[in-house]
Amino acid sequence: MKAKYFNKSKEEKVFFSTLKERVHQKLEHKNVAYGDARFWFKGLFWTLICYFSYSLLFSDFITKIEFWILYVVFQLSGLLIGFSFGHDASHNTAFKNKKANAVLHFLSFLTVGIDPLLWGLRHIRSHHLYANVEGSDIDIDKNPFLRLSPTHPWQPKHRYQAYYAPFVYMFTLLHSVFMSDWVYLFSKEYHWMKRGISIAGLFFRFFLYKVCYFSLVLVLPIVFSGFSWGFVLLTFLTASAFTSLVFIIMLVGTHFFDGADYPQPEGEFLEHTWAVHQLHTSCDWDANKSWARFLSGGSNCHAAHHLFPNICHTNYSEINAVIEETTREFRQPYHHKTLFEMMFSHFKHLNKMGKPQTNNF
Fold it and tell me: Which first-to-last residue range defines the signal peptide (predicted)?
C-alpha cells in the first residue's frame, strides 16, 4: 500500500467541522454509535427470512423449482443480513463491546462466503481511508476483465466491457470465495492490511469460517435435502450468480459512476482533505427512501457512511438532509441519484473507460 497524505485546506476543514457540529446537533440526545430498535428489527427480520427459507430446503414435499426458489431467497436474505448486521459490526457500531461485534460480524457473513475478518480489514484500512485511489484502495485494484478507473491500462477488449460487465458481475461473489480471499490471506503484498492481527488467529478464523460456510450452503443440502449433489451444486452456482448481481447493483455505482473522481497524489499529497475526498468519490442512491435503506443497510447513503462510519446506519435518514444542505452552502460536491440513474451512470462510466482516448493518469 502506498501511504498518502490528505490536503490541509482550511476552507475544507471548516466545512467538515461545521458539518460534524450540525450532525451532532441533529442527533443530540440519541445513542447513535450503536444499534437501536430499528437496527435489530431489520437485521432479525432478514435473519428470520434467511433461516426459515433454509429450513424448508429439507422438506420432503418440495419440488426442484421450489428448492431453487427457496435457495435463492436464502442466499439473498443472507446477503441482506450482511448489509444490515455485518457492515455495522465491522465498524463496531452494532454493540459497545468489540468482541460482540466480531461475533456478529462472523455470523452475519455466514451465507455470503467472503471471509468477514479479511473483508473488514481491507474495507476499513484501505477503502474507507483512500476511496478510489489507485494503489491504496484495494477495491479498485486492477482486474483482468474490466477497466474501472482511468489509472488502469487500456486493452482492446475494454471497448465492449459495458456489454459483458453483467456476466462478469455474476461471478463476483464466487470469485471472492474461491480466489480473492485466498490471495488476501497468503499474499505478502497485503501484509500491511493484516498488521496487528495474530497470524495464527487469522488463519484459524479463516478456515473455521470457510468450513462453516461450505457446510451450510453445500454439504448439509447435499446430504439431507433428498436432491442429487449435481442439482444442489447447480442451484448453489446459479443462486450465487443471481445474488452477486443484486450485490453489484446496490454497490458498484456508489464509487464507479460517471463523474466520480479517481485522485492521484501530487508528490505525497492528495488534492483534498479526507472529508471532501469522500464526497468527490461517493454517490448516494435514493438516500431519502426508506425501502432503499431497509434493503441496503444504509449503503445507499454512501456519503453519510463514509463521512460518519462510527454512526449506526439507521441514523443516516436523519442526517442526509444536513449533508446535502451543508455541501450546497460550502459549494462542495454531493452526488445523489435514483438507483436506476446510478446504474445508468455506472454503465456510462464503463463505456467511457472502454475508449482508448481515456488516457491513464
Answer: none
C-alpha 285: how far from its chain's center? 14
Q: How far apart are CA 42 and CA 294, in angstroms?
A: 7
Q: How far apart are CA 175 and CA 165, in angstroms?
A: 14
As a whole number of angstroms, the distance between CA 8 and CA 273 comes to 6
For residue 213, tell me if it sits in a domain: yes
Check residue 3 and give its pLDDT: 58
Cβ-in-10-Å burial (0-12, 13-18, 19+) of 193 comes to middle
Q: Which residues pair with 335 in a beta bridge?
A: 283
Q: What is the pLDDT of residue 359?
A: 61
Confidence category of residue 261, pLDDT binned at 50, 70, 90: very high
Asked if the structure places residue 197 within a domain, the reply is yes
Structural domain boundaries enclosing 87: 37-268+335-353
Q: What is the pLDDT of residues 53-66, one digit of tens each?
A: 999 999 999 999 99
Inter-residue contact 140 to 132 (CB < 8 Å)? yes
**What's the domain count of the chain?**
1
Residue with the three cell numbers 466480531: 102
Quote the cell numbers at residue 108.
Answer: 452475519
- Report H helices in 82-198: 87-90, 98-108, 116-122, 161-169, 172-175, 181-186
Domain assignment present for 284? no
Say if CB 264 and CB 2 are below 8 A apart.
no
Give the other-Cβ count within 10 Å of 258's Cβ.
Answer: 18
